[in-house]
From TrEMBL:
UniProt superkingdom: Bacteria
Chain intervals for the UniProt region annotation (Disordered): 447-502
Residue stretches making up the Helicase C-terminal domain: 323-475
Family to which this protein belongs: Belongs to the helicase family. RAD25/XPB subfamily.
Listed InterPro entries: ATP-dep_DNA_Helicase, ERCC3_RAD25_C, Helicase/UvrB_N, Helicase_ATP-bd, Helicase_C-like, P-loop_NTPase, XPB_DRD
Domain Helicase ATP-binding: 88-233
Gene Ontology terms for molecular function: ATP binding; helicase activity; hydrolase activity
Organism in which the protein naturally occurs: Lyngbya confervoides BDU141951
Start-end of Polar residues biased regions: 486-495
Broadest EC class assigned to this enzyme: isomerase
Keywords for this protein: ATP-binding, Helicase, Hydrolase, Isomerase, Nucleotide-binding
Protein name: DNA 3'-5' helicase
Extent of the signal sequence: none
EC number: 5.6.2.4
Length: 502
């Protein structure tokens, strides 16, 4: 009598032996001469199981090591319509997909709703230790009867609900791959990197949720999220949620002019740089162009001079005295409102900190000092903080009302992240959040700002706005509230739904 095919997990892959009858499984498998057996990528577990079941092929599944849990939230928080819509959209996609929501829109609570819907062992990935501990505390409050563990920062737990940093999860991907039925990728734009992607590739998890405010990556690898997690199933912008879940907000651009001395020096430096770029046929309007400039600048004295000129010109635009005068006016105008000041470089951070006596946070700030500064900001002892990119993502920043961006990159992600730092409503239903963007006129900052704030499909702007410019009004969301509310009510009463038999 023929033996029943056995499906087992082996260090991030599946082994199927002996080969089943029929052809349903063959497209998933690759022959491994070393062990003389068929292997299947762990990522293909769900598709393989579906194919075997549809073909009525008998098999024994020893690969699955994750548990069915009993998750019931003790919190009485009522989901917002957009959270119910997102859950419904994710379920209609079969429990795989990416949800794009702005900062402060409740992505963590949405993940808890998904966990309750699937009722499976869950692995949650986050980019920083700060976020890991935030998730851990939230999950302990939400599901007090379930063991929650940590992986990263010196912790090596093995729990049915595990919160891990991307780095730690990638290091242990081979041993974690079959232990969790649901993967939650917070800030999922980190996943497609060469190092992190093995977390998804080595896992059999049939249910996958990606969460981010900005899925797009400069290298185009965000397209890989479609098969590492699933397609984008739901998206809302800050404009769509403004005044509902998020605070009303205005985006105000202010232009400053360089002094005559700064202008002369800036123009000399840009001409020196551009001469080199023209000679080498390099265009800086793309990631590839910048990478080519970096390579070429290391190969000759002329290239090094061009790169040094680029950096000095950038420093002039970022740190012009005109920006500091506007900063002083804005701080005076909005005092004592909680205010965050963002710059792109640490030198300007420390200059502002010294001249205005404002606490500074950079990547060089020790963890304990950073925590103390943020706590003082939260309590109102410090009305203002100046920082570079370290507070863009992965840090729980206390509620603020004003953000002042003195310099930044052309990254859309950076713009969304910095806006998100002032969008939290808090206890103020009538809160108006303000985002000021201060730009050096007649410099490359103008084009960077236009590129950063351009909406998809929008034509390039021809002129810099110099007056307050609120975001255009968007139609109110029409939630599928009845359907979503019914789904959530059924899940809450029944203890969870499992869309598929996994």
């Amino acid at each position: 009598m023929a033996r029943t095919p056995l499906l087992s997990f082996d260090r991030g892959t599946l082994i199927l032996h002996p080969p089943p009858r029929g052809k349903e499984w063959i497209d998933f498998a690759t022959w491994d001469d070393r062990i003389e057996k068929f292997r299947v990528p762990a990522l293909q577990y769900r598709g393989l199981i579906q194919a075997l079941n549809q073909g009525q092929v008998a098999y024994q599944d020893q690969a699955r090591a994750y548990q069915v849990l009993t998750l019931a939230q003790t919190q009485s928080h009522r989901p917002y319509p957009h959270q119910l819509e997102a859950l419904s959209a994710w379920q209609r996609q079969g429990g795989q997909g990416v949800v794009v929501l702005p900062t402060a829109a409740g992505k963590t609570y949405l993940a808890q709703m998904v966990m309750q819907a699937t009722q499976r062992s869950t692995l949650i990935m986050v980019p920083t230790l700060d976020l890991m501990h935030q998730w851990y505390a939230n999950l302990l409050d939400a599901f007090p009867g379930v063991e929650v563990g940590l992986l990263g920062g010196g912790s090596h737990d093995r729990a049915p609900v595990l919160v891990a940093t991307y780095d730690s999860a990638a290091i242990h991907a081979e041993s974690l791959g079959n232990r969790y039925g649901l993967l939650v990728f917070d800030e999922c734009h980190h996943l497609p990197s060469d190092f992190n992607r093995v977390i998804a590739e080595y896992a059999i998890a049939p249910f996958r949720l990606g969460l981010t405010a900005t899925p797009e990556r400069g290298d185009g690898r965000h397209q890989d999220l479609d098969w590492l997690i699933g397609p984008q199933v739901y998206r809302r912008t800050p404009e769509e949620l403004s005044g509902q879940v998020l605070a009303e907000h205005r985006h105000i651009k202010l232009a400053v002019t360089l002094s005559s001395q700064e202008r002369d020096r800036y123009d000399q430096l840009i001409e020196l740089r551009n001469t080199f770029l023209r000679d080498k046929g390099i265009f800086l309007g793309s990631l590839q162009g910048w990478q080519n400039f970096v390579r070429q600048s290391a190969r000759s004295p002329a290239g090094r001079r061009a790169m040094l000129a680029h950096r000095e010109a950038r420093a002039i635009a970022f740190g012009t005295a005109g920006k500091l005068r506007i900063l002083a006016d804005l701080l005076h105008q909005h005092y004592p409102a909680q205010t965050l000041i963002f710059t792109d470089d640490n030198a300007t951070v420390y200059r502002i900190s010294q001249e205005f006596l404002i606490p500074a946070i950079t990547h060089q700030t020790p963890v304990k000092e950073r925590h103390r500064i943020l706590e003082s900001f939260k309590q109102g002892d410090y009305p203002t903080i100046v920082t570079s990119r370290v507070l863009n993502e992965g840090v729980d920043v206390p509620e603020a009302r004003v953000a002042i961006v003195l310099s930044g990159t052309g990254s859309k992600r950076e713009a969304v992240q910095r806006l998100g730092r002032v969008l939290r409503k808090g206890q103020q239903d009538s809160k108006l959040a303000l985002l000021y963007e201060v730009i050096a006129q007649g410099t490359t900052e103008e084009n960077v700002s236009k590129r950063r704030n351009r909406k998809p499909g929008e034509a390039p702007q021809r002129q810099l706005e110099l007056v307050p410019s609120p975001y255009p009004e968007t139609p109110a969301i029409q939630p599928r509230a009845a359907e979503s509310e019914s789904i959530w009510q059924n899940q809450t009463e029944s203890g969870g739904l499992s869309p598929l038999d996994f």
